[in-house]
Specification:
There is one protein chain. By secondary structure, the protein is an all-beta fold. It is 0% helix and 40% strand. It is built from no helices and 18 strands. The chain is globular and about 50 Å long. The chain starts with 12 loop residues before the first strand and ends in a 17-residue tail after the last strand.
C-alpha cells in the first residue's frame, strides 16, 4: 500500500553566526548558550563563530553571558524563531552601562543587545563579482556614508546599529572613506582588497569607539573589518587561503568556515585630502 510521511517528521533548520561587535570591556569575552546548552566559549570582541545549525519554525532561547557566568547573569537572553533554510547574522553590540560611556550623537540607544539579520550570503549573486554589506556598530559615532575615493557612493546614511543591503563590487583593491552624513566630513580612510575574492560575499563592520578617551579609555579605536563566507570547507586538514586570517580557531571540520580579512587603516595628508600616501 501507499506509505505516508507525517509532516511532523520533517526537521527544519536555519544557520546563524554570532559576531561579537560590542567594544564594552565588560562584555569581552562572552559565552553563548542556545536552549540552555553552552555552544560557544570565550568569544572576544572582534571575533565570530562559524555558522551554527539551529532548529527553525520554533522558538529557541539565545543567551549571551560574560565568559564563565551562568545564564541567570546573561547580558542578553531572548526567545527567537528562525525561518527555515535561512542564514542569519546575530551581531552583539552596545555597552552594558550606557551612562558610563559617551552617548550616541544621534540620540540612539546604545544599551547592550543584538541585531539579527536574515539573508546572509555565502557567495555573490554572480560568479564574477564580490557582494558586500555593511553594519555600523560604533556607539559614539554619527550616521555615516561610505564612499570610494573617486566619489562613488557604496552606502548612505547608515545610523548606529543599522545595516545595509548588499552591493556588488568588481574584484579589485579599493580605498574607501567614512564620512559624516550630516557634515560630509571625512572621518576615516580604509583599504579594502577584494581582488582575489571573486564570487565571494562579505559583511563589513564598523566597531570600536570614535573617542576611546570618553569611553573608559577602552583600547578599541575605530576600525573596520569584514567577513567572507567560505561555503565548501569540509576537510579537517584543509588550509585557509592566502591573505586570510582564520578566526574560527577550534573546529576546522565545520562545513562553513568564517574568515576575517583585516582592513588596514590609512593615514591621509590633511593638506591634500584627495591624496593618499601608499607607503
Amino acid at each position: 500500500g501507499d506509505v505516508f510521511v507525517s509532516a511532523t517528521d520533517e526537521v527544519f533548520t536555519a544557520n546563524l553566526q554570532l559576531i561579537h561587535n560590542s567594544a564594552d570591556p565588560a562584555a569581552s569575552p562572552v559565552d553563548v548558550y542556545i536552549n540552555g546548552e553552552l555552544k560557544l566559549e570565550n568569544v572576544s570582541f572582534g571575533k565570530a563563530s562559524p555558522f551554527l545549525e539551529v532548529p527553525a519554525n520554533q522558538q529557541i532561547s539565545v543567551a549571551i553571558t560574560p565568559a564563565g557566568a551562568p545564564v541567570s547573569e546573561a547580558l542578553f537572553n531572548a526567545g527567537i524563531t528562525f525561518d527555515p533554510d535561512q542564514n542569519y547574522y546575530i551581531i552583539a553590540r552596545g555597552v552594558g552601562n550606557p551612562g558610563g560611556f559617551a552617548s550616541n550623537p544621534d540620540g540612539l540607544d546604545t544599551s547592550f543587545g543584538v541585531n539579527i539579520f536574515s539573508g546572509a550570503r555565502l557567495a555573490s549573486a554572480t560568479d564574477f563579482e564580490f557582494d558586500l554589506a555593511f553594519y555600523h556598530g560604533v556607539t559614539d559615532a554619527p550616521s555615516i556614508d561610505i564612499r570610494l575615493l573617486d566619489g562613488a557612493i557604496l552606502f548612505e546614511d547608515v545610523a548606529y546599529s543599522g545595516s545595509t543591503p548588499y552591493t556588488s563590487l568588481a574584484p579589485d583593491r579599493y580605498f574607501i572613506e567614512i564620512n559624516s552624513t550630516a557634515t560630509g566630513d571625512r572621518l576615516y580612510v580604509y583599504e579594502l582588497d577584494v581582488s582575489e575574492q571573486v564570487g565571494g560575499a562579505g559583511l563589513a563592520l564598523a566597531g570600536g569607539f570614535a573617542d576611546p578617551n570618553q569611553n573608559q579609555m577602552a583600547s578599541h579605536s575605530p576600525y573596520m573589518w569584514f567577513y567572507r563566507m567560505v561555503k565548501f570547507w569540509k576537510q579537517e586538514t584543509q588550509q585557509p587561503p592566502k591573505m586570510m586570517t582564520l578566526i574560527c580557531q577550534t573546529k576546522l571540520f565545520w562545513s562553513r568556515i568564517t574568515q576575517i580579512l583585516l582592513i588596514r587603516t590609512l593615514k591621509f595628508d590633511t593638506h591634500y585630502p584627495n591624496r593618499l600616501p601608499l607607503h
